[in-house]
Specification:
203 residues; globular; binds coenzyme A
């Protein structure tokens, strides 16, 4: 089923908060979406700034199936931003987030003129890792104790895509090659985990 993107507005509040409520077990320990009217208002406020974009992934009938945020947009020589996302139950696992992310990535590169998007994902969050991998993101490294989620500092993998990766992927090219190497993080478990999965550009 095709999806489209809507900009979060006060009119979405009821449906949004109900969707967050019924998705608690899907989100637990992974993301902390706005869960009441006040936090939703704060979210709308953040989305209205030039450094942030919020996107609701919707079905043709307006049903909310997920959220994708492009945040902390830095301009100048960086032109980069963070990507955050979560699906809403019971619509997960049906390809809607892949489709929605495809639209957001295209918009970030074409309309917002970004050069790079970065998604930070907990190593055990295999669904999210599979999702960004399918979309052409590559693993850049591991950040130990990176984000405090549900009261705990949690390690995250840093996945990123540049406009060149995205264009190359669309043209069927493979601009990246596998490179055997290790990123030393000071954490032996982390260093081991990301052994042989560093990518570098093919000359
Ligand atoms: C990660 C998350 C957003 C993925 O959402 P999703 O709805 O499962 O995403 P999609 O359905 O687009 O993912 C594709 C999956 O659907 C399947 N799928 C089913 N029908 C499909 C279709 N028509 N087209 C494409 N994929 C389809 C794919 O095979 C794939 O399954 P697999 O991963 O088992 O191989 C969701 O699990 C979630 O909200 N998790 C909690 C929050 C979270 O972790 N956020 C990220 C924090 S970094």
């Amino acid at each position: 089923m095709p999806v489209h993107l809507e900009t979060p507005s006060p009119g979405h509040a009821k449906a949004f908060l109900e969707a967050v409520h019924r998705s608690r077990s899907l989100h637990r320990g992974l993301v902390s979406p706005p869960r009441d009217r006040e936090r939703y208002r704060e979210y709308l406020d953040r989305c209205s700034r030039s450094t942030n974009e919020g996107h609701l992934v919707c079905l043709a009938d307006g049903e909310l199936v997920g959220v994708i945020n492009v945040s902390e947009i830095v301009r100048g020589v960086f032109q980069s931003a963070y990507l955050g996302f979560y699906a809403f139950a019971p619509h997960q696992g049906q390809g809607h987030m892949s489709a929605g992310l495809g639209l957001v990535i295209a918009s970030a590169f074409r309309k917002s003129h970004l050069h790079r998007l970065e998604a930070n994902i907990q190593p055990k969050n295999l669904r999210s890792i599979a999702l960004v991998k399918r979309l052409g993101f590559r693993l850049e490294g591991l950040s130990p104790r990176y984000l405090k989620i549900s009261g705990r500092w949690r390690d995250h993998e840093r996945w990123a895509i540049t406009i060149e990766d995205w264009r190359g992927r669309r043209a069927g090219a493979q601009p990246w090659m596998r490179y055997a190497g290790t990123i030393e993080t000071g954490d032996p478990r982390a260093s081991q985990k990301i052994d042989h999965v560093v990518y570098r550009r093919k000359d």
